[in-house]
Amino acid sequence: MPAEGIVGEVRVIPVRGLPELADGADLGRLLHEAIVRLGGFEHGDVLVVAQKAISKVEGRVVALADVKPSTRARELAGEEGDPRHLEWVLRESAEVVRSRPPLVIAQTRHGFVCASAGVDASNARGEGTLVLLPLDPDASADRLRARIHELSGATVGVIVSDSFGRAWRQGTTDVALGCAGIAPIRDLRGTSDAVGHTLVSTQIAVADELAGAAELVMGKAAGIPAAIVRGVDAVGEGSAVELVMPRDRDLFR
Amino acid sequence: MPAEGIVGEVRVIPVRGLPELADGADLGRLLHEAIVRLGGFEHGDVLVVAQKAISKVEGRVVALADVKPSTRARELAGEEGDPRHLEWVLRESAEVVRSRPPLVIAQTRHGFVCASAGVDASNARGEGTLVLLPLDPDASADRLRARIHELSGATVGVIVSDSFGRAWRQGTTDVALGCAGIAPIRDLRGTSDAVGHTLVSTQIAVADELAGAAELVMGKAAGIPAAIVRGVDAVGEGSAVELVMPRDRDLFR
Lengths: 253, 253
Prior knowledge:
Radius of gyration of chain A: 19 Å
Helix content of chain A: 25-40%
Strand content of chain A: 25-35%
Oligomer: homodimer
CATH superfamily of the largest domain in chain A: CofE-like
CATH class of the largest domain in chain A: Alpha Beta
């Protein structure tokens, strides 16, 4: 049974006990079963799932050995990098934004700007493999949401999260790559603050704050691929692509 | 009494019922009293306090009328901005990183890169006033931590938070400007992930994720200036300046 809470509090609940995820696994069922053990979903819950879990069940794991590095990949790898890794990064990139070999900041085809176009070696299945981002993280979130509704009857929000670095700040925070059933941005423009001023330029990236809050219980090293965030009113519609700064408003491209 | 929780869960608890804050107010006492009404602190709690609350009690509220705008401020204001506002932004800036009048992205003297060097009109005390960032947010966090310990005996972590925009992404998320009694970055370099790989480049900006989680219950419009985050092991020492990317590693300066 869910515990009684303090009025207005938010709870972030780790979802444990999932097996190692294989290509084609029914992630919706595995999450549903784990969440039944936690007492089930409540109305308004947001389920945050690590990108890597999604990518694994969607077959987005590739072998370093499967590519022949281009000249450009060799350049970007420099002395320290693996040119085959950089070749996969280039294949996943729409554009290289900055590079300092072997570090590459790239824009993915989805529009996200991040290190290595999201291509990651840690937590991959065995040495010599890489995990790529899902092809369409919003669609991944949608499918998971539908599967969970089918199995449990619950209508939840779903976020696909990943750890991104930031310009000017050290360390990563988790952000939303995909979402379903939630409004990723809370737009306060035109509303009044506590002393009656009109807030003219306030849009809060709620989906990114939800992803970051979930990271606090998931942890890269802990093998917890999902969390429930309970108590935030984020119900709505929208795509995580809304979180990408449009090019014509972007001062850093 | 605190409610019984799910193992490993994190709770984010809004701190309500504070009065409008005046210059010189004993914010530590006001927070202590509000938190007693919530059942008191628990070991390991992190108290996140909005920068604006700190700035108000530290007298960092200024009048637009108190400055004569320079030529540079007039240029940065363009057609739409208030040159007096931009003059305050310049006074708070160590360097202008980008501008598109009247928008300015600047580095503050603390090292933070953010819109308007953190100078903000919303929620200021009356029309014609601006709120500046605290002079030393780490010191503000330290003082608050000491005052709370004095009044309650509790040893807590404290974060001073503010809403920052991000390069490439829409919407703000709350981040840490100051901290006391916590390690702002969790360094996983050299540790192993769930399948035994060594994580070579993983530093998590836990203080920023804590600030973002707190924002989920604070809300700009709701007049809740603080939140407790319970259940995250972030105890340690450190300065929020550790969250600033060193210039020699910064690809975006």
